[in-house]
Amino acid sequence: MENCQPSGSFKSRGIGKLARKLKEGGCQQLVSSSCGNSGVAAVCASQAIGIPCTVYVTEGVQPACLDLIRDNGAQVKIVGSSYNITEETALKEAEKPGCGFLSPYNHPEVWAGNSTLVDELKIQLPSKPSTIVLSVGGGGLLLGVMKGLERVGWQDVPVVAMETFGAHCFNLSVKATKIVSLDTITR
Fold it and tell me: What is the pTM of this model?
């Protein structure tokens, strides 16, 4: 029931953990990049720890998502038609003193937070699952689940990673055996 998380998605787990770590390190302003859900999680995390947040989003983010981010107190900056441009801009902003970059997927704290899904499975299920099926965007959920499976001794549980055609950079990366970025997300 990840839809019951403060942001409405699993992203609260990892992004919330990273936000707390950044604040503990002296961060006074969070900066994030998003195509939607992670921006909502970033602003929820910033509210929870009491520091401001700016969320950089790609052009074409759903208006309802933008409203959720703004209504919860974050400043929104729409930058670029591709996520790569949006993330580069946010990373540059996060270099300013007192700022911290709240990665939606590419940080060990995000993976550790997302791995807590597996801890809950271990507690709640009578036995290990036969298979785990999950979605892949940036890969933070997949890495977190893999780390969680390893931690609880379930490395043999198969994981099926699904992604939307048009945003299928994970599939292309696996085929190319290197990281592949898409110029635009078409779906």
Answer: 0.89
